[in-house]
Write a structure and sequence with these properties.
Blueprint (H helix, E strand, L loop, with lengths): L36 H9 L30 H27 L2 H34 L13 H35 L4 H30 L8 H5 L6 H25 L6 H42 L1
């Protein structure tokens, strides 16, 4: 048998005889592959980004996946971090007042600074998580990838963003309290009752206005002047049931947290360990409800914007 001949392309030629059909007379040199295998391997190792659209909204958007949202797999870790921050804050607050009553003002002042710093850090982190929950839920996602990293500057901006809107809502509530203040000065006998009613009404007005300001600011991209407030309030007629459910559910959550805190306060030093996790859950549920509200009224806002553009044309 004769060895197969090689051509210029380094591929083995056909055998010279029938006995050498499979070219067993000697190893043939293989041609180099024209494909860069190393490049393919590097590309295969890169993470692939799969674009997916959010699932269709649930049949009951103001109930499905709302009250159990803090304990979703994607959000339970953030709930735990916020809960720990509130527990430590409430413990420091209790120690601060305990030290003021039994040790003196020196201990009170020594604990005041770390208590304020921890409360600001915890609320800023909680606000950052809640804003992310509102945005992702409003886009139609059920499981929210919060992705709030360790960036205290971002937390600070989120804290400032929410506090500006809370201040604006509180100022309007304070304007409502002015006539009650005048009535309390007229009759000293009924002054405590009138002041208490005025305070409750002012807080109620602020809590009603705050979600409107927040959605308007997120739609307009500015917390200082929520320019889209007319678009948000314009949906209250067509979507009155969704708005009513939102206020009823958020009010029930607020009352439940207050009741749990007061009940746990009868056992010494139990309130921080109960009120902290309950407050963290209440904030995430509130953000979830606000995101679902935005999801329900978003189509009306887009339709109004489209109609206004066509009218201008």
């Amino acid at each position: 048998m004769t060895a197969p001949q090689e051509n210029d392309d380094h591929f083995p030629t056909a055998p010279d005889s029938e006995d050498d059909t499979y070219g067993t007379s000697g190893p043939a040199e293989r041609a180099p592959l024209p494909i860069n295998v190393e490049k393919l391997m590097r590309d295969a190792e890169k993470p692939r980004v799969v674009e997916a659209e959010p699932p269709p909204p649930p049949e009951w958007p103001m109930f499905s996946g709302v009250f159990n949202f803090p304990w979703y797999m994607d959000s339970v870790g953030y709930w735990a971090v916020i809960s720990l921050g509130f527990v430590l804050t409430f413990l420091l607050l209790g120690f601060m007042f305990y030290a003021a009553a039994h040790v003196g003002l020196i201990a009170f002042r020594a604990l005041a600074l770390p208590t304020i710093a921890l409360s600001l850090l915890t609320t800023a982190y909680a606000f950052a998580c809640c804003l992310k929950v509102i945005e992702e839920t409003a886009c139609g996602w059920d499981s929210v990838d919060i992705e709030v990293g360790i960036d205290w500057k971002e937390w600070g901006w989120c804290w400032l963003y929410v506090m500006v809107l809370l201040t604006e809502a509180a100022l309007i509530g304070a304007l409502v309290w002015v006539p009650f203040s005048w009535l309390s000065s007229v009759n000293p006998v009924t002054a405590p009752l009138v002041s208490a009613v005025g305070t409750l009404v002012s807080v109620f007005v602020a809590l009603v206005i705050f979600p409107i300001f927040l959605l308007s600011a997120m739609a307009a991209g500015s917390a200082w002047l929520p320019l889209a407030i007319s678009k948000v309030t314009g949906t209250m007629g067509a979507q009155w049931l969704v708005w009513l459910l939102f206020y009823l559910e958020t009010g029930a959550i607020t009352v439940a947290w207050c009741a749990v805190t007061v009940a746990s306060d009868f056992v010494p030093w139990l309130a921080p360990f109960v009120s902290g996790p309950a407050l963290a859950a209440a904030m995430l549920i509130y953000a979830r409800l606000l995101g679902r509200l935005a999801l329900c009224i978003g189509e009306d806002i887009l339709a109004e914007e489209k109609a206004s553009k066509e009218k201008r044309r």
